[in-house]
Amino acid sequence: MIKKLRIKLILVSMLSLLVVLLAIVGSINLLNVHRMIGEADGVLDILAENDGRLPMQEEFTNLEDSPEYASPEVPYESRYFFVLLDEDEGVIATNIERIAAVDQETAVEYAQAALDSGKERGFVGEYRYTVQEEDDGVRISFLDCGRRIGMCRTFALNSLWISLLGMLAVFLLMMLASGRIIKPVSDSYEKQKQFITDAGHEIKTPLAIIDADAGLIEMESGSSEWLQDIQTQVRRLTGLTNDLIYLARTEEAQGRQEMLDFPLSDMVEEQVRSFQALAIQNNRQFISHIQPMLTLHGDEKMIGQLVSILLDNAIKYSDAGDEIRVMLEKQGRAVHLSVFNTVESINQQELGHLFDRFYRTDRSAQFQNRRLWHRAVDRQRGHSGA
């Protein structure tokens, strides 16, 4: 349990860190890409306003409506071209003077791809484009964003690697620190198990004395309903005490079980035979289908205890005349064991708690309390002569 708690703590911490890093790194990279596209669109707007060319800084120094460059070096470092098409998408003119990586044929192909996309702005490869309607046709201006895209890609990869290294560092720190973090819980849990074991042994002594005294009273005064109830409740308390001690010892022995191959079919058949008489005595229909010669690698004693508990619960929590089925068969590479019993009704919300320790549904607890109350009332009436 402590080991699982430590693993869950590390997993939750790493998952939380992953979510935070994804949010931070993703937001930064999205802002970076958005900024790159915004700068490219600003340059394209200047291209569209100046017939597909970028005016140099000295050309508009004294003009009121001069374009606003992010840097005065933009006209010198930008690589761009444009294609002018008529209404029938025929080529009127192309200008590839300010780019070396694109020839005229490629420029026309890029222009056709931009028109086919149906968008006013977008990307064709690493080129950002804008489509502008003019009197004599359509001008598609392209701006080379390869260097900007490369910088964004490099930044994204670097941030990803740094995040992974950060997660690895946090993971190593959590591996070292998680033991100290859960140490108080571990100590408390160990003390709790020790208390259960010690208290169980201490409780068994008075229970044995009560059972022995009840037997002596029965020998001297004869059997009575009161004595039978005392002996029944003593046996019940003894069984609960043994279960508590068994659970504590089982958890202490986790990881130290003797795992061997054993005949599972024979073990389940033996458990079924031991409960056959009890099922008949309680008017239950007991049906078993056990595939022979099945083996399993595990702790035979603990698995036998599990089968015994399942059969015992099936008999306890089913009504008279109900059907109990035990099936053991091989399904692919796995062995499937099922214990089936019918009940009147179970609340859907309680299904997830049926395998919790000592869990009882409200209906069964209410039924048990009501039955004890009626028995006490009947006894009181008999005692008073009513």
Please tell me about this protein's structure.
- By secondary structure, this protein is α+β, with helices and mostly antiparallel strands.
- Helices cover 59% and strands 16% of the residues.
- It has helices at 2-49, 74-77, 104-117, 146-181, 183-221, 225-252, 264-281, 300-316, 362-384, and strands at 80-85, 91-95, 121-124, 127-134, 137-144, 260-263, 285-290, 295-298, 323-331, 334-341.
- The protein has a 5-stranded antiparallel β-sheet with strand order 2-1-5-4-3, sandwiched between helices. A 3-stranded mixed β-sheet has the order 7-9-10, with helices on one face.
- β4 and β5 form a beta hairpin.
- α1 (2-49) runs antiparallel to α4 (146-181), α5 packs antiparallel against α6 and α7 (264-281) runs parallel beside α8 (300-316).
- Mean pLDDT is 82; it is low at 363-370.
Topology:
Layout (H helix, E strand, L loop, with lengths): L1 H48 L24 H4 L2 E6 L5 E5 L8 H14 L3 E4 L2 E8 L2 E8 L1 H36 L1 H39 L3 H28 L7 E4 H18 L3 E6 L4 E4 L1 H17 L6 E9 L2 E8 L20 H23 L2
Parallel strand pairs: 7-9
Antiparallel strand pairs: 1-2, 1-5, 3-4, 4-5, 6-8, 9-10
